[in-house]
Amino acid sequence: MSRLLNSNPVYVVGIGMHPYQFSNAIPFVQIGLTAVREALVDAGAEWPAVQSAFVGTTALGMAAGRVMFQHLGSTGLAVTQVESASASGSSAFRLACLEVASGNVDVALAVGVDKTGDARRAADKDGLPRLSPTATIPAVKFGLLAREYLRTHGLAVEAMARVAVKNHGNASRNPYAQYRKPRTLEQVLASPKVVGDLTVQQCCPRGDGAAAVVLASAQGLKRLGFDPKRAVRVVASVSCSERYGSGSEASVTEMVRTSTHSAYEQAGIGPADLDMIELHEAFSVEELIYTEAMGLCQPGEGAAYLQSGASAIGGKCAVNASGGLLGMGHPLGPTGIGQIAEIVRQIRGEAGERQHPDTRLALAHMIGLGSVAFAHILAANR
Amino acid sequence: MQLQNKNPSSAGISSTSISLLRCLICEQLTYPAAAYGCSRCGAARENGEEVLMPARGELLNWVTVFVDLVPGLKAPYVVGEVRIAPGVVEEVVIDVASEADLSVGQQMVAIAHDAATQTAGAVNDQPVKPVLRFIPETVLRGVAK
């Protein structure tokens, strides 16, 4: 992918969102089209300019793309639906990058759209017995991981609860976020317990939502007449899945480390070069573990890194300036593309009251059930 | 913290074993024996043999689940990670009165629960399913006396 991205640069030129919200009666077509139309306007593109579209969704069923896109006009574009659990949107984005970088098309769309409710896990249908019926439940997996992390590093529950305080605070400044209320440490800790030391406010909400981005090649930029200074370049795209680990750390942690460092290598950067990261913290402890795995700080120092303010907006490297999954929400299909939209907004300097100063280089990282990982690095084009 | 359903002496205990797949190529174990291949080297199931292991192991980690997450398993209950064989760590339901009864490295043994003896109630009208539960070996010894 690095050779392709070097030889045929890919740019994000349009972003669009439908706010993430608790489950409601609004049809997915309406929320999906809201995001797509906003992205088209942002890109200054008409729908017929889009030659290929990738739709990330987990719960809508077959052929969601055409059901939406027919209302924009039947232009004959290529439509591909993808599913990678929480990382479905990231998966759609990566395929759209490949489509443009390969030279197959000059303008592509990645859209994530989902409604809460119908998602079913293949792991529950593999025909195999399990010792515990909770074995495929992410909240239990991460509750166990949190307990082990806190025990190993001698940390109190407050250490991971502070992730929720920061991210709910960021979300309160994000008009697209599902939660818009700042939370105190006391409120986070006093909210009802879910699993182990994880309280409700340390677990992401499920919901409905949509996010869309328009991608273009250099040729596509010219065709759209798009200002190159507002374009944000994709400089790395990595995908991998869990491997049989060394046993010295959780396999999901190893996967995050591997995928992120592969992305650094593709982009020719190191973690110290990053201005911001959007990452998967469906459960608060993940942010501590992943900031360590991503090399922002040493193993065991994630909590200290957070408490120092380094990962706050205005800090050394803003982590989840959008509010993350905890605050902005996690409607699954849209989440990974929502991360890209946030990064593009920040790099353009258009993030309003949650703007992280001088953002030029950022990482979007998602994991999905299974487990799979996607890492993308985006850079200012100025 | 007090949890429900925590009297092993009334829980229909029976000795039990766990069936695993031993790979004849790399000799590693996989749970369950019905797996479609070796989880380590990927060899086909036909290249493995089923082995019965005592349903016991070393407790590595645990948490209490406070909300109803799966049909038929009423919260609160404790879930833990137990090394049931070399290289095989599985999530299990643990039958203890309190997390305070647990410690890292503790030896755990499985008990086969009869659904009818479980005091935990049905969830969302789903019947309580029999679930293999683990208890500290010391507790089982106490019951045997």
Question: What's the quick description here?
Answer:
The complex is a heterodimer of chains A (382) and B (145). By secondary structure, chain A is α/β, with parallel strands linked by helices. Chain A has helices at residues 2-7, 28-43, 64-69, 88-101, 138-153, 158-171, 185-190, 218-224, 251-267, 285-293, 302-307, 324-327, 335-348, and strands at residues 10-21, 52-56, 78-82, 107-114, 193-195, 198-199, 208-216, 232-241, 276-279, 318-319, 361-368, 372-380.
Describe this entry's structure for a reader:
The complex is a heterodimer of chains A (382) and B (145). Chain A is an alpha/beta fold and 382 residues long. Chain A has helices spanning 2-7, 28-43, 64-69, 88-101, 138-153, 158-171, 185-190, 218-224, 251-267, 285-293, 302-307, 324-327, 335-348; strands at 10-21, 52-56, 78-82, 107-114, 193-195, 198-199, 208-216, 232-241, 276-279, 318-319, 361-368, 372-380. With 145 residues, chain B is mostly beta strands. In chain B, strands 4-5-6-8-7 form a 5-stranded mixed β-barrel. Chain B has a 3-stranded antiparallel β-sheet with strand order 2-1-3, with no helix packed on it. In chain B, strand 1 (17-23) and strand 2 form a beta hairpin. The A-B interface holds A 127-135, 137, 139-141, 143-144, 146-148, 151, 192-197, 244, 247 and B 18, 31-32, 34-35, 39-40, 60-67, 69-73, 79-81, 84, 87, 90-93, 104, 129, 131-132.
